[in-house]
Design goal:
With 75 residues, this protein is mostly helical. Helix content is 71%, strand content 0%.
């Protein structure tokens, strides 16, 4: 007899939270990228970072959360 694989998926509540968080992160990083004052960039450069690098890392986190939700959906 064939065994059925049971896959665990996120609950609908967790899926909604992760999806909402990823959208908020992506929109916020776009706003920071295009609306941040130049002083933020100079302060981050003084700390050894760049505004663009911080934005890219944060967007990567948002995309990771989005893909986590996308690949968890049942068939």
């Amino acid at each position: 007899m064939s065994e059925q694989k049971t896959q665990k998926h996120f609950s609908p509540r967790t899926t909604n939270i992760l999806l909402g968080a990823s959208v908020v992160i992506l929109v916020a990083t776009l706003l920071v990228r295009f609306l941040a004052p130049a002083t933020w960039d100079t302060q981050l450069v003084a700390m050894g970072l760049g505004l663009q690098q911080v934005v890219l890392v944060t967007m990567g986190i948002g995309v990771f959360l989005f893909l986590l939700v996308a690949f968890d959906q049942p068939e």
